[in-house]
Amino acid sequence: MLLPNWLVFSTRSIPFRTSVYYGLFKKCTGYNDTCRPFPSVDQHDCNERNFCEEWEAAAIGMILAAVVGGLAWLHLVSVLVGGRAMREKAWKILSVLFFVYGIRKFAILQFSSIAFIAHLYSTADTFYYGTKYDVSFVLANVSASLSIVLGITLFMNGLLSPPEYMHI
């Protein structure tokens, strides 16, 4: 999320090979290793209609997704440390947290941020021809997908598992 690796533009021509890395909060140039805030009104990044608003919405969505994801993992650790009664009830809260973290229909967090970046990637003139998705974009997709699978697994396990007292 914090690394400028969402989109990348690279030239392969020698001797002037250069790369431009776009992150949610900054843009870095590989030629002279300089970074600046992105998008910036001062640098005329916001000339296109709704570009800055969409990019900032994606950044805010990823920040909120990180907060909810952190809460989900914190709750997961507390459940693992807690007793049997806590584990029996925790699947409801955990599955909801993982769904909110990953599924766009419920909270519009991680997948909506990915969708904003993908939309701007394909429609904005800001990005040069040849710009590609980079590591952070791919990892966000993997994270959101795993979150959905984990949420469904926890929910189904909690729903279909018999209560502990039936095993006695």
TrEMBL record:
TM region(s), chain numbering: 57-81, 93-118, 138-160
Keyword field: Membrane, Transmembrane, Transmembrane helix
Domain of life: Eukaryota
Name the UniProt record assigns to this protein: 10676_t:CDS:1
Organism whose genome encodes this protein: Dentiscutata erythropus
